[in-house]
């Protein structure tokens, strides 16, 4: 019988490693500098040394978004309605320390986004949607404009709750828009592009739980330090339990390596478990709990949709 393996993620979600990543291995247009921590020909799994320490406090930031309605905004300049979205979004911070994890903050915002300069503020019986501006009316740009607002809210909450000199901030997703924050890590759970050449990609596959790859630099119009970490996992599928971490390109190599060691020690105790989370172990327990709470705080989408329709008629 031909051997096969089953991806540990629930089939309702995309696989942790997209199939196209295999076929495009090494074909990414991103620029790579592989010899930041070790020579590229001498890559091997890294186990944090005895001097490495997990951060005393790990702050986990995440945000969620939802489109409550598609809208049209009257624009007197064009005499044509302009498409837009009415959206709810929320961000939150979980503080993880030696005594466990606690919710530090949650904020919920609503926005009416379009390319029109005449986008109004819309007050409904249940929520107020503040105007937001998109560069154009395409669905992609409307989505990007909404994501920028989510990211900005995450940044504001993160700055507000940074307190200790040695705390570390983990943001769910790429570091995009948050690279200026000190001691901040982007946390990427799924892999749609295989950035590394075959020899270094093989090192990723050989990682044991609690190990990481050497740090490297990557980027196109942006640049970031990056490394891969394997979380505790029972599955034997390719890249099972693998996450990519990102840090500012402004760090010197020693700083980036020290940060990578700290994160590699901090993540395994927070790994999700498969009987509770279909995206375990990559969906960390604080992230999964925060996402669930944030979606609850967005409110009833049907109620908000009806309120928007009522406001549009008045």
Please provide a written account of the structure:
The chain is α+β, with helices and mostly antiparallel strands and 314 residues long. The chain has a single domain (19-313), classed as archaeoglobus fulgidus dsm 4304 fold (2-Layer Sandwich), CATH 3.30.2170. The chain has six helices and eleven strands. It has an eleven-stranded mixed sheet with strand order 1-9-10-11-8-7-2-3-4-6-5. Strand 5 (122-123) and strand 6 (128-133) form a beta hairpin. Residues 1-9 and 19-26 have low confidence and may be disordered. It comes from Nonomuraea ferruginea. This is NurA domain-containing protein. InterPro entries: RNaseH-like_sf.
Short description:
This is NurA domain-containing protein. The chain is α+β, with helices and mostly antiparallel strands and 314 residues long.
What layout of secondary structure does this protein have?
Layout: H1 19-23, E1 31-33, E2 58-75, E3 80-97, E4 100-114, E5 122-123, E6 128-133, H2 139-161, E7 168-172, E8 184-188, H3 198-206, E9 216-219, E10 223-230, E11 242-248, H4 253-266, H5 285-297, H6 301-313
Parallel strand pairs: 2-7, 4-6, 7-8
Antiparallel strand pairs: 1-9, 2-3, 3-4, 5-6, 8-11, 9-10, 10-11
Order of strands side by side in the largest beta sheet? 1-9-10-11-8-7-2-3-4-6-5
The number of strands is: 11
Radius of gyration: 21 Å
Taken from the alpha-carbon principal axes, the silhouette is: elongated
SSE pattern: HEEEEEEHEEHEEEHHH
What is the CATH top level name? Alpha Beta
Low-confidence stretches: 1-9, 19-26
Features:
25% helix, 314 residues, archaeoglobus fulgidus dsm 4304 fold, alpha+beta, 6 helices, eleven-stranded mixed beta sheet, 11 strands, RNaseH-like_sf
């Amino acid at each position: 019988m031909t051997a096969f393996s089953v991806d540990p993620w629930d089939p309702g979600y995309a696989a942790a490693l997209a199939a196209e990543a295999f076929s495009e291995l090494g074909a990414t247009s991103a620029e790579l500098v592989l010899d930041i921590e070790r020579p590229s020909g001498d890559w091997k799994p890294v186990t944090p040394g005895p001097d490495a320490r997990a951060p005393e406090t790990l702050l986990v930031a995440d945000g969620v978004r939802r489109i409550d309605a598609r809208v049209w905004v009257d624009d007197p300049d064009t005499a044509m309605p302009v498409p837009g979205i009415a959206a709810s979004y929320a961000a939150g911070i979980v503080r993880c320390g030696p005594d466990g994890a606690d919710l530090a903050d949650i904020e919920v915002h609503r926005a009416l986004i379009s390319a029109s300069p005449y986008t109004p503020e819309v007050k409904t019986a249940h929520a107020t949607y503040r105007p937001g501006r998109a560069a154009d009316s395409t669905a992609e740009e409307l989505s990007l404009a909404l994501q920028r607002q989510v990211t900005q809210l995450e940044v504001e909450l993160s700055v507000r709750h940074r307190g200790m000199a040695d705390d570390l901030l983990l943001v769910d997703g790429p570091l995009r828009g948050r690279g200026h924050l000190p001691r901040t890590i982007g946390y990427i759970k799924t892999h749609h592009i295989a950035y590394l050449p075959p020899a270094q990609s093989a090192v990723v596959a050989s990682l044991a739980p609690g190990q990481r790859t050497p740090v490297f630099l990557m980027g196109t119009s942006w640049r970031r330090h990056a490394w891969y970490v394997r979380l505790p996992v029972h599955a034997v599928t390719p890249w099972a339990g693998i996450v990519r971490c990102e840090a500012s390109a402004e760090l010197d190599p020693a700083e980036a390596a020290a940060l990578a060691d700290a994160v590699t020690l901090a993540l395994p105790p927070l790994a999700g478990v498969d009987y509770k989370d279909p995206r375990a172990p990559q969906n960390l327990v604080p992230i999964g709990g925060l996402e669930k709470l944030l979606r609850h705080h967005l409110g009833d989408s049907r109620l908000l949709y009806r309120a928007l329709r009522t406001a549009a008629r008045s």
